[in-house]
Write a sequence for this structure.
């Protein structure tokens, strides 16, 4: 433990100094389709922290090439790469003529190929369908945030929630996916791992980092001791032309839009439209960089291998990556932009500014809770990973205990059960369970959600009392509880799931428990908790610095905030040119132009 | 002729209308209005903070009646619109100089 901490400090120092002697950059993007280095990568990353692990001692049993993206029999028709990976796992497509399948002549290997093709099919369909649910969460965010703003700003708030989808998606396509997932293939993985969506993901093997790994011939493998950024897949160019990459791109894109739309709730009713548009194109930068460190095989995920801290930073579906990042950008934005006119009286006391449509908020909350059944279980990227039923039950339990926890907290404060705060409670439970959803048991999930529900109420009033105006409660729901979700992995993870997660297999854990799953401090692995704290600290510092710098700079390009006159009149007319509710205005029903 | 103007709670409108119809009133005009009286509106809660609603929603009923019926109409409205709580409203009675039915040109009591 102590040794690991020392190494961790060293690693930080090395990174901060960034001396060119210690840093070895390598770019391996152009070798995208070459299967060999990619296949070597998982082995090259065999944990130095676990010398003599069983996986390293015995030679690996031979598995068909498509699990490792290699071509194991050159004489056969090439199974992979095929033009776009659409035939992954199949030697030949079934056909009526003599060139296609003849069922009674199929060998065991041929059957195996067809089964593998089905495996990839199930996983791709699962990932796409859950991604559709996540995309629909945009509608949920629009309802919640618009319902919580005043009628005079309804069109503007709804438009922000609308345009963040095209703007964010465009930026993700241009550069976000490349920096986040461009080196995905070289991330730390468990022994025996294969890409659930298909071997084509091996093209995502170019990036920059510290400590480039080399193969026996001294050639860079594309793997790094500390991965920092990916460099493959700008504009989804031809080099990543593969079905599995497209599925991954789609799923990760709709996740990013969740992050992107969170600050619009914290900065609603005063954010200038032009500045918001610039933000929409920028937000992929901090999001995808940090996502690379957690999900793209980067240095936080490698914390287990490098520093011996649990399984490295573990964030299953993104309490930190998605929600923590969004909430922290939101708090930076809300501080930079200042409170709405009239939010605080002359003595700095917060004033109520009632949202104009409470049933809209409730509808949005239900849409989000529904979408979360894509968000969390979809993050397995595999319908064949049957843990999904646990993930779904955990997600549901945390959402209901979140709402109950919020109700209890309100009652303890002597308040009535404010409908909008109950909704915040349910969303807080969902945000918190996002990171631990696969690793905890239902009891753990219920506790995590309950704590989140209480936390969100106290957080809302605390943030408000500090002069930070957050009309939708986005900072408390996503920021506070995103961090709580990340920490809760290090407390409640049971060790039943996630064996070998992030490439960590520790002998002592295997001896003690039979397998080395992700394990929190309540179940015997304190180092995982330490790693989650490091992850939170990195997230807070990185997100706040990036966001403050951005909002200050963008304010020079085009003002962050609308004029006082516009804010008082309402942003709908001056900013959008369209009123949310024109019929509420006093005007003649028909104007005749002579 | 008298103009009876009553400001009542919105949910009492149906009851007042029924009672007036029974008492022989043949027509009325109704408006949705907002205002305040001695209590100066009231307060509501939103996300834990109080805010005041200065102008409360009310319904204003206008009824035109012959002089001899005015007292009866006022009595009926007072009974039917009463809840006994703050904010039950007020009734104003004023004299009307002339009434004309637009379609026929009839004047005075015939036009009511």
């Amino acid at each position: 433990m102590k040794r690991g901490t020392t190494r961790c400090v060293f690693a930080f120092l090395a990174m901060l100094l960034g001396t060119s002697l210690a840093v070895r950059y390598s770019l391996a993007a152009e070798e995208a389709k070459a299967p060999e280095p990619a296949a070597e990568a998982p082995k090259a990353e065999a944990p130095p922290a676990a010398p003599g692990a069983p996986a390293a001692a015995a030679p690996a049993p031979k598995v068909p090439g498509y699990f490792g993206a290699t071509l194991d029999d050159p004489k056969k028709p090439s199974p992979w790469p095929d033009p776009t990976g659409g035939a992954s796992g199949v030697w030949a497509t079934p056909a009526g003529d003599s060139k296609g399948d003849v069922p009674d002549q199929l060998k065991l290997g041929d059957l195996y190929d067809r089964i593998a093709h089905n495996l990839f099919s199930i996983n791709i369909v699962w990932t796409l369908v859950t991604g559709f649910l996540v995309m629909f969460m945009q509608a949920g965010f629009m309802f919640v945030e618009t319902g919580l703003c005043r009628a005079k700003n309804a069109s503007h708030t709804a438009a922000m929630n609308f345009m963040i989808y095209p703007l964010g998606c465009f930026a993700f396509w241009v550069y976000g996916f490349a920096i986040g997932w461009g080196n995905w293939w070289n991330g730390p993985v468990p022994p025996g791992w294969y890409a659930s969506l298909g071997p084509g993901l091996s093209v995502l093997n170019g990036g920059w980092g510290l400590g480039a790994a080399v193969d026996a011939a001294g050639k860079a493998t594309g793997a790094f001791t500390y991965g920092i950024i990916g460099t493959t897949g700008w504009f989804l160019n031809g080099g990543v032309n593969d079905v599995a990459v497209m599925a991954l791109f789609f799923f990760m894109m709709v996740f990013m839009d969740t992050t992107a739309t969170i600050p619009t709730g914290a900065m609603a009713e005063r954010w200038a439209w032009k500045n918001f548009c610039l933000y929409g194109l920028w937000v992929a930068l901090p999001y995808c960089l940090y996502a690379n460190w957690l999900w793209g095989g980067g240095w936080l995920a490698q914390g287990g291998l490098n520093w011996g801290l649990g399984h490295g930073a573990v964030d299953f579906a993104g309490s930190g990556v998605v929600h923590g990042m969004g909430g922290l950008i939101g708090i930076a934005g809300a501080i930079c932009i200042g409170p709405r006119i009239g939010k605080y009286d002359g003595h700095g006391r917060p004033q109520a500014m009632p949202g104009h449509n409470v049933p809209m908020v409730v509808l949005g909350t239900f849409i989000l809770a529904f979408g979360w059944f894509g968000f969390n279980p979809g993050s397995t990227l595999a319908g064949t990973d049957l843990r999904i039923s646990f993930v779904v039950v955990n997600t549901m339990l945390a959402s209901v205990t979140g709402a109950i926890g919020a109700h209890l907290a309100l009652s303890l404060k002597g308040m009535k059960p404010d409908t909008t705060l109950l909704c915040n409670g349910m969303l807080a439970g969902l945000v918190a369970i996002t990171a631990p959803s696969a690793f905890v048991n239902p009891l753990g999930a219920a506790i995590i959600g309950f704590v989140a529900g209480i936390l969100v109420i106290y957080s809302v009033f605390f943030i408000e009392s500090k002069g930070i105006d957050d009309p939708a409660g986005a900072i408390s729901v996503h920021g506070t509880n995103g961090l709580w979700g990340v920490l809760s992995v290090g407390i409640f993870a049971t060790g039943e799931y996630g064996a070998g997660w992030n490439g960590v297999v520790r002998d002592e854990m295997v001896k003690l428990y039979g397998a080395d799953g992700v394990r929190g401090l309540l179940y015997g692995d304190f180092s995982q908790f330490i790693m989650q704290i490091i992850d939170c600290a990195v997230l807070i510092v990185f997100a706040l610095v990036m966001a403050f710098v951005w909002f200050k700079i963008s304010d020079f390009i085009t003002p962050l905030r609308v004029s006082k006159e516009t804010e008082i009149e309402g942003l709908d007319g001056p900013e959008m040119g369209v009123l949310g509710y024109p019929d509420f205005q006093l005007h003649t029903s028909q104007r005749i132009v002579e | 002729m008298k103009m009876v103007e009553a400001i009542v709670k919105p949910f009492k409108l149906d009851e007042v209308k029924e009672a007036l119809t029974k008492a022989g009133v043949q027509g009325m005009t109704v408006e949705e209005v907002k205002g305040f009286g001695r209590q100066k509106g009231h307060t509501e809660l939103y996300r834990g903070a109080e805010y005041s609603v200065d102008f409360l929603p009310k319904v204003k009923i206008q009824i035109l009646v012959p002089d001899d019926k005015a007292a009866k109409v006022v009595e009926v409205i007072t009974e039917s619109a009463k809840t006994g709580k703050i904010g039950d409203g007020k009734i104003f009675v004023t004299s009307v100089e002339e009434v004309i039915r637009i379609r026929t040109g009839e004047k005075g009591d015939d036009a009511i």
User: Anything to note?
Assistant: Chain A touches chain B at residues 350-355, 413, 415-416, 418, 420-421, 460-461, 473 (CB under 8 Å). Chain A has one domain: 128-569. The longest helix of chain A spans residues 108-147. The mean pLDDT of chain A is 86.
